[in-house]
Write a structure and sequence with these properties.
By secondary structure, the chain is an alpha+beta fold. It contains four helices and 16 strands.
């Protein structure tokens, strides 16, 4: 496997994770609310809230929807794929003016299980939490998502140590690297490898 192939990243088709329903509204208007959804329905719910706001003529009260995601690199079938991974599965955030009509429109959207709050009363998300979510969504340097774990036995499938067996000593998800202890000349030697150079046994 060549170095070029290791560095090649496939960008998978992404669903929009930030839906602007009304771009003409001041960004400070309304408050952010956390909506609980069935896990795996976040994008579908976000799109349906947009459609409902338009159909029910509530675009002057429901302004934007965010599916909290972070860009990561996933190792799949020996290739790196750039994907948007949900970091709050089962939750989306909506900026809106809360009243009976908007509450009902969002609450009765298919896939929504409810607002996050005390009892039946939705509580707005503090501004600092909104900033944290947005910062995580736009942070640089996508992290590698891997299914390897420290202490796991692996086989090296590329490079000078091909076919050697080893144990993962440490994982650097930021760089997509692992340190593997390989038995070499009768003693364990640490070897730095790319995620694509090893496989589970």
């Amino acid at each position: 496997m060549t170095k070029k192939k290791l560095d090649e990243i496939i960008v998978e088709k992404k669903q929009p994770n930030h839906i602007i329903i009304n771009k003409d509204v001041d960004e400070n208007k309304g408050k952010w609310y956390v909506i609980h959804t069935y896990s795996g329905y976040e994008y579908k719910v976000a799109n349906q809230i947009k459609q409902r706001a338009e159909t029910l003529e509530l675009t002057d009260k429901i302004f934007e929807v965010i599916v909290p995601t972070q860009e990561k690199i996933l190792i799949k079938q020996g290739k790196k794929h750039k994907v948007n991974e949900r970091f709050l599965p089962g939750y989306i955030v909506v900026r809106m003016l809360l009243d009976d009509n908007t509450w009902l429109a969002v609450r009765t959207t298919q896939g929504v299980t409810g607002f996050v709050g005390a009892g039946s009363q939705p509580i707005p998300l503090p501004e600092k939490d909104v900033k944290t979510i947005k910062k995580l969504m736009t942070s640089e340097a996508p992290r590698f998502k891997t299914k390897f774990s420290v202490g796991e036995a692996v086989k090296i499938i590329d490079g000078p140590f091909t076919d050697f067996l080893g144990t993962i000593e440490s994982i650097d998800e930021e760089r997509g690297k692992v340190k593997v202890l390989v038995l070499f000349f009768g003693r364990e030697t640490p070897v730095d490898l790319d995620f694509l150079q090893i496989q589970k046994i």
